[in-house]
Structures are given as C-alpha cells and as structure tokens.
User: What shape does this take?
Amino acid sequence: MQRLADAILLFVTYQRWIYIALALLGVVLVLVWWWAGHKLRYKIFGLERESLKNLRARSMTSLMMAICIGVSIWMINSFIAPNLSELMGVPFTPTPPKATNIPAPTVTAPVVLPGFQTPTSQATTGPTPTKTKVPAGGSGCLNPKAGITSPIPGSILSGEIEVRGNTTIDNFAFYVVQVSSLGQNWLTVITDKKPLLNGSLGKWDTRLQTPGEYALRLVVYDSTGKFPEPCTIPITIVPLPTKTPEP
Assistant: This one.
C-alpha cells in the first residue's frame, strides 16, 4: 500500500508533464495513422496494403491507450489523491521530496510576531515573516485548497491535539505546520507529503511548548517550491489540568 500511495503522489506531482507527453504522443500517432491511410490509396500490392492497414490499426490502438492513460491519471488526481489517507490509511514518510533546482524551505527563518522588530534579513526560502499581529479570525485561511480547519482561531489547547486541514493545491509537493510564540522563530511541528481534503495533517503535543499565546500556521508547497499565502491562526496553550488525588 505504501508503494501504491507513493506512486499516486508521483502522478500528482508530475501530472502536467505526463499530460504534455501524452499529448505529443497522440499527435505523432494521429500523423502516423493519416500517413498510412494516404499511402494506402496508391498501393495495389496486397502485401504492402496489408502492412499499411496493420500500421493504421496499431497507431489507432496506441492512441486509444494513451487517451485511457490520460483519463486514468485525471481520475486519480481528481478523486483518489485528495482522499488518499482516508482511502488507504497509509502514513507517508514525513520528509519533503527531493527535486533538482528546487530550494528547500528554511524553517528556522528569523520570524518575529507582534511588538518585535525583525532581525537583519538574510536570503532565505520560505513564507515572508509577518510583522503584524495575527487577526483574531486568522489570516490567509480563505483558500479552500490550503488551510487549517481544526483547531479554529482563538482555540485554547492543551496536551496532544490533532491538526486538520486542506493541502490540495495544484502540483502539490509537501506541507509544514509551524508554531511561533511572541519574539521566537517559527518551529516546525508537523511535516508530510500527502494531499488532504479536510484530513488529518498530524498530531502535535502542545506540552512541548511553554504555556502562552502562539500563532499556528500551515504552509503548502508545490513542486516548484512556491506556496500560496500561509494560513495563520492565533491559539493559546495552557497546561493540562492537575488531577486532585482522591482521599
């Protein structure tokens, strides 16, 4: 199941190039079919005519196969990939895919939240640091293809929680869930490479952070290293309630 899931993700990542290759193949096959039909009009010998007829049949069969492959990949990208984790229940290795000439995201960029000045900027790849307070309703979360659905903005969290959201952007590659407190850099707490539609992004143990006010954000990268505006929400982490020992 793991290999099948990885193969599906490979189709999702390189779907554009697959469609282009199939389109070029289709053009070549149509030209071969037309050329064989044109030659067939002027051939009178049975052996030559039989050879051209076979060529036309093979080119048409190959064209139908290419069309079927294209339709199959479209169905995988549209119906299977967005629900991959629910359909197969396969946890993928949480490491971003390797790609040539694609800069890796810097998850330790000097990002400062409200009331602090950003240190001297350096050349980094990743979301632009925010210098303004996160709105009470969150920011950048209106994109239906890249956003956090749970927890909701302003949530008070404690213990281990499940973060849910959408990661179905075009040419999806991987996503990261990050947290930041006032005056601290963004810290990655979840990362994975599965496209999800209101699915589980992963679990996060809030006990690893000091209680207080935080910002939680989701950054979804495509195969070129680009990303839409990250969905950022304000949250508050509190310690787990202490159980009173029974007398």
